[in-house]
Design goal:
Order of helices and strands of chain A: HHHHHHHHHH
Strand content of chain A: under 5%
Number of strands of chain A: 0
Radius of gyration of chain A: 20 Å
Largest interface: A-B, 58 and 57 residues
CATH topology of the largest domain in chain A: Tetracycline Repressor, domain 2
Helix content of chain A: over 70%
Number of helices of chain A: 10
Number of domains of chain A: 2
Oligomer: homodimer
Largest sheet of chain A: none
Chain lengths: 214, 214
DNA sequence: GTAATGTTTTACCAACCGGTCAAATTATCA
DNA sequence: TGATAATTTGACCGGTTGGTAAAACATTAC
């Protein structure tokens, strides 16, 4: 008996902590490469090195694992945009935003793919977050960009599509990694590809937005 | 008896033609929003308005449907890049490439998502196409871009990352449609969003690549 | 019209899926 | 140490899944 399944808000054993972490890590592997429906508990359990019932002792359902992963991911995912500072100057802010997003694609590709999978399938599990907090945050930062434009610090452009294009270009290196590697070939697909991408994107956006050339 | 299942290269009945088309259309719906593993034959059959065994009379396996869709899609998908003309001038070529890719995101979002799903999951079914024809095509066009740069018609930049960034920004409007709509809100998420995107992207790339301002 | 061919349906199967249960095992702590 | 609570396991269940078999039904060609 004893129903500590997935923690009762308090009192988490060392084992609980450890196993839950292992499950989430394994689940991130599986969900990010198969989507929610395509993933099976057995796959996750095997990747985590435990039996299915044992896994279900820590997370009651497949959805519970998925939900936990999405919550964690969303937080870190939006952090770089949070950092966007209205008082900073556009060049620094945009340049470092691109850089941070690119670093996230490099260091957390599975999280990026988890998110991509979720959105691709219509965001059934994070509809509220998308329509609520995420939209609010983007609205806020779009306003910041607009003030920069009004102050003549930035070429006139649609701030929403600017944000979309930064998301798209940076996340591409995580979500379409297989394609990027294949196209670049063995010589150029090493870790250096992120440096190359950073150089290209910074130039593109700096010049494209009428900021001093890169 | 009679084993015409999925066509014996010749002699296709009107009914065959018609039903296969209906199946592929339904399958595109399902695969593009659930991925290969997440899709079920039953879902496809229901969407196509026929029984599962009936569907399996036309396509022997789930994989056969998926393979057919991917083949068709890849052809149309790469066509715009094919059109990239070395003798044209960079401004026209790049501008119309962006425009065509954006139109494809608008008119064939399901195809875009089918492709995105496949790449996200590691491209298990189109590995060969990616490493072969696709890479070759990109290599060829990257060379075209390089000659433009050498001729001083374009700012110096990495042609591969240029192509990636066009792919990423345009396909974003199909693959991340749910997010785009949510962020833009009801007022600005109408069909006009593609016009806005086109305007923004053309400006970004034209200026970013050192071509006359948009 | 009838025979051959093409199409659809009903019934079915074995494997897999998410999840439960109760018993067995292990860790914790007084 | 022993009692108690935490963890792990194997056996199991009902529903779903990809796919088959065979017969009923429809269409076409002669």
């Amino acid at each position: 008996m004893t129903v500590p399944r997935a923690a009762k808000t308090q009192r988490r054993t060392r084992i609980q902590e450890e196993k839950e972490e292992r499950i989430l890590d394994a689940a991130l592997d599986v969900f990010s490469s198969s989507g929610f429906r395509g993933a099976t508990i057995d796959q996750i359990a095997e990747a985590a090195g435990m039996s299915k019932p044992n896994l279900l002792y820590y997370f009651r359902t497949k959805e519970a694992i998925h939900r936990t992963l999405l919550e964690r991911m969303l937080f870190t995912w939006l952090e770089p945009l949070q950092a966007f500072d209205a008082d900073g100057d556009p060049e620094t802010e945009i340049r470092s935003y691109i850089r941070r997003k690119l670093e996230m694609s490099r260091d957390f590709p599975r999280e990026s793919r988890l998110f991509a999978n979720e959105i691709l399938q219509g965001a059934p599990h994070i509809e509220d977050e998308i329509n609520g907090p995420l939209k609010a945050l983007v609205d806020e930062k779009a306003e910041v960009i607009r003030t920069w434009i009004k102050a003549g610090k930035l070429a006139r452009c649609d701030p929403y599509h600017l944000i979309f294009s930064i998301w798209a270009t940076t996340q591409h290196y995580a979500d379409f990694d297989v394609q990027v590697r294949a196209v670049l070939g063995e010589n150029r697909a090493g870790e250096g590809r992120f440096e190359d991408a950073a150089r290209f994107l910074e130039q593109l956006f700096m010049r494209g937005l009428g900021i001093s050339a890169a």
